């Protein structure tokens, strides 16, 4: 029997409680974020993360980021927090800046795609924040699309790609835009720009008081 995908209003109390129950059971759900719609699972559940790769048809060599509820949660997923990481988190979180940090032993290896670091962010979105807080664990999450396809900005756009692949889409209306987060690798000194997005490199350098590395 094919999986039935429901679209339920994110601000409905019963629907939200159902979403949290699904996450705790290791299921994959979709939800709005401050950039585009995301799809995710409980971030410390390796079997659930495996299902996230399957739902997106995502290659296992492409790592998946973690979404945190608060900057203080960085200590739960990072084995080391550099001075640069602390400064950038304090300035830009919650917001559209992703930091690449050394992964702690608690982070499932499947999330890291063979590497030793993990990308983390605190999104500026009440629905995601409440999901993470209710779960009491980070969300392993990425854009709610088939790998390589267009990033969705509405629940129907998610449904068009992931129908019968996931059990639930929380509908929070259209997202604010499709500009991705800026990604900064703080495992190196000076930090390195991995992807330019919503936060400018100039703003990052201004906050750090130094020039960052650019290019791969």
Describe the structure.
- With 216 residues, this protein is of the alpha/beta class.
- The chain has a single domain, classed as DHBP synthase.
- Helices cover 31% and strands 20% of the residues.
- The chain has a 10-stranded mixed beta sheet, sandwiched between helices.
- The protein is globular, with a radius of gyration of 16 Å.
Topology of helices and strands:
Elements: E1 6-9, H1 13-24, E2 29-32, E3 37-42, H2 46-56, E4 66-67, H3 74-77, H4 83-92, E5 97-102, H5 109-112, E6 117-121, H6 126-135, E7 139-143, H7 155-162, E8 168-171, E9 182-185, E10 192-195, H8 201-208
Parallel strand pairs: 1-8, 2-8, 4-6, 5-9
Antiparallel strand pairs: 2-3, 3-7, 4-7, 5-6, 9-10
- Which structural class matches the secondary elements? alpha/beta
What name does CATH use for the topology?
A: DHBP synthase
Q: Shape from CA axes?
A: globular
First CA to last CA: what distance? 45 Å
Radius of gyration: 16 Å
Largest sheet: 10 strands, mixed
Binned strand content: 15-25%
Tally of discrete structural domains: 1
DSSP strand tally: 10
Features:
216 residues, alpha/beta, DHBP synthase, 10-stranded mixed β-sheet, 8 helices, 10 strands
């Amino acid at each position: 029997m094919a999986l039935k995908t429901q679209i339920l209003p994110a601000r409905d109390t019963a629907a939200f409680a159902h979403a949290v129950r699904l996450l705790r059971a290791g299921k994959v759900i979709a939800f709005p974020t401050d950039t585009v719609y995301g799809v995710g699972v409980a971030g410390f559940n390796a079997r659930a993360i495996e299902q996230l790769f399957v739902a997106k048809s995502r290659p296992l060599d492409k790592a998946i980021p973690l979404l945190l509820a608060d900057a203080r949660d960085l200590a739960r997923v990072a084995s080391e927090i550099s001075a640069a990481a602390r400064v950038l988190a304090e300035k830009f979180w919650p917001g559209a800046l992703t930091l690449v940090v050394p992964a702690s032993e608690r982070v499932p290896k499947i999330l890291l795609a063979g590497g030793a670091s993990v990308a983390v962010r605190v999104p500026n979105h009440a629905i995601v924040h409440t999901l993470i807080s209710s779960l009491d664990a980070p969300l392993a999450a990425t854009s709610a699309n088939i790998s390589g396809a267009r990033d969705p900005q509405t629940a129907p756009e998610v449904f068009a790609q992931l129908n019968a692949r996931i059990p639930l889409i929380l509908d929070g209306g259209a997202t604010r835009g499709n500009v991705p987060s800026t990604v900064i690798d703080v495992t190196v000194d000076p930090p390195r720009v991995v992807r330019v997005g919503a936060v400018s490199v100039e703003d990052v350098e201004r906050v750090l008081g130094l020039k960052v590395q650019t290019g791969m």
